[in-house]
């Protein structure tokens, strides 16, 4: 199968705040998705296997997929990790370091208001349990609107903080909001990340995809069973790589203009 589903989840919860609700699925829905993946003959593999193939390494097994989670919500430890462990399934968790807080308490700093985030201790426990930990910047900034110095601190600072805390090197990064540019992608590689997850208009990845800009399928609250079933069959979405579209370039220009004018576009609540 040329189309490789790399599923992107955010929160898995029954009671998310209103701003997060569109990007949240319930635990019951998440279990249904895991069942649909298995029932349709997909095999979940660690992200590192996909990245190795994108770098010209060993071929991927047929009919494979990857699970990824962004931001670092506390429900990953309480809900997602036990479900994955019970089934022996691999996943990658991209965390925003400025949002990590004390266990089970609402985030009062960083970019994610009124929602419980993982603590540094929990991230360490998940790492020790075999969950791949990746970087998602320090403050969840729109990297493609920032000057070089700020991008360097967001990308490299996140890597240093996580590696210091976990005691080993990390290689996987995800662009906040999915936003990047050619310059940002080059700087991510220079910082030592060997892969970087995008969204790419919600598309399948493939063995020809860019390891520093590979596509994912964002699973949202309104992702119905029919669409998810199509994704498990390698249907219903474009397949990367493909050129960046005019709409994406125009949207970046708009956000950059607002940033330079001192009126930044708010992708999340302040």
Automatic annotation (TrEMBL):
Signal in keyword set: yes
Coiled-coil residue windows: none
Protein name: Polysaccharide deacetylase family protein
Keyword rRNA-binding assigned: no
GO molecular-function term, one example from the UniProt record: hydrolase activity, acting on carbon-nitrogen (but not peptide) bonds
Gene3D superfamilies named among the record's database cross-references: Glycoside hydrolase/deacetylase
InterPro entries: Glyco_hydro/deAcase_b/a-brl, NODB_dom, Polysacch_Deacetylase
One Pfam match: Polysacc_deac_1
Cross-referenced SUPFAM superfamilies: Glycoside hydrolase/deacetylase
Superkingdom of origin: Bacteria
Native source species: Streptomyces guryensis
